[in-house]
UniProtKB/TrEMBL annotation:
This is TetR/AcrR family transcriptional repressor of nem operon. The keyword GTP-binding does not apply. Gene3D superfamilies: Homeodomain-like, Tetracycline Repressor, domain 2. GO terms for molecular function: DNA binding. Keywords: DNA-binding, Transcription, Transcription regulation. Residues 9-69 form the HTH tetR-type domain. PANTHER family: TRANSCRIPTIONAL REGULATORY PROTEIN (PTHR47506). Residues 32-51 bind DNA. InterPro entries: DNA-bd_HTH_TetR-type_CS, Homeodomain-like_sf, HTH_TetR, Tet_transcr_reg_TetR-rel_C_sf.
Length: 184
């Protein structure tokens, strides 16, 4: 039985949304296709009507995650104050405590290196984010803007990874706070 195009597109989007959330929460290997389908309210069978493989879903999930990152960036005021607000929002306890709703880079970077089929999409999208951050915010010097953007993003992502990795909440808060101070 064929489903209407709109219904098929809605199911595809739902699978992608739940997969992206679950991958960010538990990693690629920590989530099965069956669990993703169950989270969408669908059975395992229709998965292959939407994706050829779990790896294809992983790639699309990474692309969707970066789209959210770019959307959030573009929704931020393109001023020095906007950049400071962006950093503060990113390096917050709320973001740290909700990896499934947060940044793909901070949640999945360490796993990407083990996933050759995902690495290209991740690389392309990271370059796009760096270019967008470079162009969106004012920097002290046009000559060093790209380097400043790379340092800012690497510091933010690294701080989030470390803040999530430690078991001491006060130390985790300190990591976020100190990196925030260094960037704003």
């Amino acid at each position: 039985m064929r489903y209407p195009v709109a219904e098929t597109a809605e199911k595809h989007a739902r699978i992608l949304e739940e997969a992206s959330r679950l991958f960010r929460e538990r990693g690629f290997s920590g989530v099965s296709v069956s669990e993703i389908m169950k989270a969408t309210g669908l059975t395992h069978g229709p998965f292959y009507n939407h994706f050829d493989s779990k790896e294809e879903l992983m790639v699309e999930s990474v692309l969707q995650g970066f789209k959210s990152t770019l959307d959030g960036l573009h929704a931020t005021e393109g001023t020095a104050r906007g950049r400071a607000e962006y950093v503060k929002r990113y390096l917050s306890a709320g973001h740290r405590n909700a990896p499934g709703m947060g940044c793909t880079m901070a949640s999945l970077s360490s796993e990407i290196r083990h996933e050759p089929k995902v690495k290209g999409a991740f690389t392309d999208r990271l370059k796009a984010v760096i270019e967008a951050v470079t162009a969106h915010f004012p920097w002290p010097s046009k000559r060093s803007a790209r380097g400043d953007a790379i340092r800012m993003m690497a510091s933010m992502v690294g701080a989030m990874i470390l803040a999530r990795a430690v078991e001491d909440e006060r130390f985790s808060d300190e990591i976020l706070s100190e990196v925030r101070k260094g960037l704003v």
